[in-house]
Amino acid sequence: MKSFCLKIEDLHRLQKKAEADLKDRLIRSDRGYEELVLRDKTPRVIEVSEEFAKDFCVWQEGKSNANPLADVLGVDLNHEDLQKKVVDFLYTIPQKLKWTEEERIVWTLRFIEDTAPIEVAERIGRKRSWVDTKYSRLNVRFNKAVKEWWAENAK
To answer: In the chain, is it the N or the C terminus that has fewer CB atoms within a 10 Å radius of its CB?
Structure first.
């Protein structure tokens, strides 16, 4: 800076330009110095096949013992028993919320059994828009009840 009588900003600008020029010359040269001097700083992205990812998920399912829901619903449950307990649990929530029979049918068919809303509407003799609105409101109440249940039971 002193020998060339430059300001600090000018020195940094010239230094960056010189570094870029050096990198360019190293890359274009046929001597092989770029391997010794330059390196890629970008993070390595390792891609795997879809089959590998699926196989890994299947393998992980059998190896993972860290299921908080299994800890609350029962100890040492296998996958099938846990699924049955979850479904049973889902059926008990509307009973505890004291929903009407119609509300229970709407929510159970839509949430647990994944029935199309038009089928639910035909089954209970209501319009689809009514079923959609009712289900949405019931879901809000269900989510609140499950959060409260979790806070009480997952201590």
So the answer is: C
Report angle CA 17, 21, 23 to the nearest 5 degrees: 120
Gyration radius (Cα) of the chain, Å: 31
Stretch 73-102: mean pLDDT: 81
Give the Cα separation of 66 and 63 in Å (integer): 9
* 3-state DSSP assignment of residue 48: coil
CA–CA dist 151, 54 (Å, integer): 33
Dihedral (Cα; 145, 148, 149, 150), 10-degree rounding: 120
- What end-to-end distance do the CA atoms of the chain give, in Å? 65
Stated pTM of the model: 0.52
Residue range 89-126, pLDDT digits in tens: 888 888 888 899 999 999 999 998 889 999 999 999 99
